[in-house]
Amino acid sequence: MGKMARTVVTLAAILVALLLLLMIVTNPLVGELVEGLFDRATGKTMPTEAIYSFERIVTVDPEDGTIIDLTIDLPIPIDLQGQQHLELFQSSVSYDDSSRYGLPWAEWSGAWPDDADTVQIVITYQIDISTMRWDIDADESGSVDDLPTWAHTFMGRHWYLNGHWMIDPLDPNISSLAAEIVGDEDDVATILELIYDWTVENIDYPDILTTEEPKSARQTLISGEGDCDEQAMLYISLARAAGVPAWLQVGILYDSSRDVFGNHGWVQTYVPTDEGGENVTVDTVNHRFMVHGSDIIIEYTDDGDAEHLEDYYYYFQCSVETGSYGPNEGPSFVQEFNTLEYWHSDDYV
User: Fold this and answer.
1) Sign of the CA dihedral 169, 141, 128, 24?
2) Cβ atoms of 237 and 112 closer than 8 Å
3) pLDDT, tens digit, 9 for 90 and up, residues 99-144
4) Are the beta carbons of 198 and 181 closer than 8 angstroms?
5) Pairwise CA distance, residues 106 & 187, whole Å
6) How far is C-alpha 323 from the chain's CA centre?
7) Residue 194: inside a domain, yes or no?
8) What's the order of all strands across the beta sheet hosting 67-75?
9) Per mean pLDDT, which range of 25-34, 215-224, 249-258 is the poorest?
């Protein structure tokens, strides 16, 4: 997932907010991780349940400059019935509990410690994840006309079908492509699968990941390549252009074959059924259609507000001494993951 650096000059200091590539970029095993994602196509089964105990190690280094103060904030994974349950969230450094957008967040902030070369925070998680697989075919799925009112309006906004940030279903290139992919089809499950097939066949995963801001859906379409969240935002744009609500989810992915964690982005969308409908997962990078594996931890679900989504991406900022950094210089922020314990069920779905 792409992230970028943002610098704002203030009165006595420079405020630096680093938008960092979701952490597979800073992991030396990124190439192996991406290979692992593609190795696990939907043809292979997933454990019905997995329990993870792991550390998320955050290190800030001022490099050759001077940091005055810093803030790091992260969402705390919430319990989702039948899907994930958080047993432990513990930090080596005390943090402030806060509520943001109706969700729990942890915030670490303060002055840079005297004589400290680096600042490091170790966050320990224990979380139980279950695989969800939705077997909804055209006979069980409703049409676009069967979508409920909330799919078109939420809190007075039509965001499920409109664009925000890097999602743009109204772009002429995207809307015309959606019409070409979908044709006269109005069954929601079929529409979603047609867009999934097109994305998997036509959008490549990049050989090199960057720390720039994620490409827009239009840029991903034109370039023909995108990482996990870029592919997800293109898929979401195509689905919305076809009249189907879809939104971004982001979190942490675990590759058990290599014991590697990395941040990840994917699609959640809605399929109307005779029983009322389901929120389902689509993950083009992992080649999973209507499957949410027990290897993915949900941290944040897009609520349609661009500022909220950007807030998830920019989770480190600091003020630095004016003149202590040259052009294109700044402090470094690195995340690493360390597995403490991994268990999975003997049952697979």
Assistant:
1) negative
2) no
3) 998 899 999 999 999 989 999 999 999 999 999 999 998 899 999 9
4) yes
5) 41
6) 35
7) yes
8) 5-9, 13-18, 316-321, 67-75, 103-111, 96-100
9) 25-34
- Please give the model's pTM, rounded to 2 decimal places: 0.87
Residues in the chain: 349
Q: Is 8 a member of any domain?
A: no
Report d(CA 242, CA 270) in Å as an integer: 13
Q: Report the SS3 class of residue 335.
A: strand
Residue 144 has which token pair?
Answer: 């676009």
Q: What is the separation of C-alpha 280 from the centre of its chain, rounded to a whole number of angstroms?
A: 15
DSSP label of 77: P
Question: Does residue 116 fall inside a structural domain?
Answer: no
Report helix, strand or coil for 72: strand
Instruction: For residue 253, give its domain range.
Output: 132-306
Q: At what angle do helices 228-241 and 188-202 cross, to 10 degrees?
A: 140
Q: Which amino acid is at 287?
A: H
Question: How many domains would you assign to the chain?
Answer: 1
Q: Is residue 201 part of a domain?
A: yes
Cβ 257 vs Cβ 221: under 8 Å: no
Say if CB 250 and CB 263 are below 8 A apart: yes
Q: Which CATH number fits the domain that encloses residue 218? A: 3.10.620.30
| Mean per-residue pLDDT over the chain, rounded | 85
Residues 219, 200 contacting (CB under 8 angstroms) = no
Round to whole Å and give the CA distance between 239 and 54: 35
Predicted confidence at residue 30, as pLDDT, reads 38
Q: Rounded CA gap, 340 and 26, in Å?
A: 20
* Rounded Cα distance, 296 and 306, in Å: 23
